Amino acid sequence: MRTKAPLSSFRVRPRFEDSLALSPDASRQFLLEAFARQNPSFEVKAFPGYICLRIPPAERNFWSPRLTLSLDAAPDHTTRIEGLYGPNANLWSLFLFGYLIIGVFGMFSGILGWAQHVIGSPPWGLWVCGVMAFLALVMYLVAQLGQKFGAVQTYQLHQAYEAAIGRAASTR
User: Is the CB of residue 68 less than 8 Å from the CB of residue 52?
Assistant: First the structure.
């Protein structure tokens, strides 16, 4: 089954949106049963309002993605499903804290550099801010490279979702 989902994009975490003509609880049960019937057997974790689909442990590597499905009730008595592809929680946390640290140092060094410039001192803080911007770009490029390493598995997860619902998933 072919799809137009933005599985390879410039987003840090690609996503798609779909809907099922069932209630959220019925959609959750329907998807869980459909995933249980599929081969290869993906690791499925279910939480109220969410389903997490992961690559089987034997095939999982550092860059392996996971698909988190958020199941929300829509006004027309259907279920709005938002699929979000992302790395393992440990890897995502590493990138999140990396961006946070780089952002904080970048912001404060930029403020320091501008203040140094205003009072006539050498604005070495602006150099630090530039280095932080470069590091943020490097982290973004590493995230994109990781997406490319996990592209085949991302496609497998998306195909598993489409096989579960029996049609191509809607995209935004």
Answer: yes
Residues in the chain: 172
The per-residue pLDDT for 70 is 93
C-alpha–C-alpha distance, residues 59 and 67, integer Å: 15
Return the HEC string of 42-91.
CEEEEECCEEEEECCHHHCCCCCEEEEEEEEECCCCCEEEEEEEEECHHH
Q: Are 125 and 113 in contact (CB under 8 A)?
A: yes
Which residues are within 8 A (CB) of 36 and not within 5 positions of it... i.e. 6 or more apart? 44
Tens digits of residue pLDDT in 104-133: 999 999 999 999 999 999 999 999 999 999
Asked if residue 33 lies in contact with residue 23, where contact means CB atoms within 8 angstroms, the answer is no
Asked if residue 69 lies in contact with residue 16, where contact means CB atoms within 8 angstroms, the answer is no
pLDDT for the residue 114: 97
Within the chain, residue ranges assigned H as helices are: 24-37, 89-119, 124-149, 151-165
> Which residues does the chain have with pLDDT short of 70?
1-12, 39-40, 170-172
Domain ranges of the chain: 1-172
